[in-house]
Amino acid sequence: MALTAKSAWTFSATYAGCSDACASAELWALAAGLSNALALRLALVVEELFTNTIKYGYCRESKRPVKIELSVNDGLAQLEYRDKGPPFDSVRTMEICAEQNAPLRIGGVGLHLIQTISSNASYANIGGWNIVRLSVGDGPLPAAQLTPTRAAA
Fold first, then answer.
1. How many Å is the maximal CA-CA distance in the chain?
2. Hey, what's the torsion of the CAs at 108, 72, 83, 145, to 10 degrees?
């Protein structure tokens, strides 16, 4: 597969579809000559977005579509992720949490993880589709900024 190759898939919003999407993304990255680290990061981003679609966008597993398009630009994987859930700007939500230095809680770690391992994220809602575009590379990651919580005494 050439480094300029673009691939696109449509999956049903099921956990089996999520597994297939992650495997497809990882295999695509490796076939495109990208590093193993980048392939794993890309699969992780796909998994986080996909499970959020199932849990919060469609509120359950369904036959509703999730579309994934991948390409390579300057050694980075370019991901376009689409679902038809209610409009939700996950990119702006990630920015707000970072600006407020909000402590992470269970249920909010996935968006932080996506923000940490991706760049150039954008969101649009066009024709009823939530569209998230972002880049994933294999460079060093910033130090984790999770704040441990202590149980009340």
1. 58
2. 0
Q: What DSSP assignment string belongs to 63-120?
A: S-EEEEEEEEETTEEEEEEEE-SS---HHHHHHHHHHTTPPP-TTTHHHHHHHHH-EE
Neighbour count for residue 52 (Cβ, 10 Å): 18
Per residue in 46-95, pLDDT (tens digit) is: 999 999 999 999 999 999 999 999 999 999 999 999 999 999 887 776 66
Q: Using the CB atoms, write b or e for 65-103: b if 16+ within 10 Å.
A: bbbbbbbbeeebbbbbbbbbbeebebbeebeebeeeeee
DSSP reduced 3-state for 6: coil
Tell me the pTM. Answer: 0.83
